[in-house]
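Could you please consider the sequence and fold following this short note?
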Amino acid sequence: LQIAREIQQSIIPRVFPAWPGRSDFEIFASMLPANEVGGDFYDFFLLDDDHLAVAIGDVSGKGVPAALFMAVTRTLLRSAAMARLSAAGCLKQVNRLLCLENEQGMFVTLFYGILDTRSGEFAYANAGHNPPWVLRCSHALESLPATGDLVLGGLEDASYQEHRVQLAPGDGILLYTDGVTESFDTANRVYSDERLAKLLRTTRDPSPATLVAEVVESVQKHGEG
């Protein structure tokens, strides 16, 4: 389990800023497994000078099987993305390949988006994952509409919808897994989507690193250790 955890931690991006000298966007992320090895993962990478790809996912189950399924999913996603498939096309391709040899019946929720750093247009597809939040520079908070599409690894011929949202300078998007909203305290009270939304509405510093730190601190405080 320790070896699997080290491998898992080594294949997700850990350096911020990832591309020194770029001022057209900021990005930050954190992953804190509740157990030694979990199935959550995130990824981000440049498709070219003007397009940033971002992804977040949550594999069913825990332990080594989840870590392996996560690594395979990430590899398949990067391969499809680098072939310059659309966001929806990437999910369709990854789902098809995962279904071909999935004897264990595992599945993964996955959100994948492509940001045009020139125009601010964000194209995305969502395979059953938590809808991200859009934080507007005006302090308005919006939840990206859920697409209703199936998780990956469940049905080979599943199709996925693509949606687009326009971002303005100063806007941000928070991607997260249910490790945040479904965290429980010692009295078995759930953290909830409502608590996360309240935190996002009251944050004073919307910079990515600060925002992620505030979310992590809030969840840990709620869980009382």
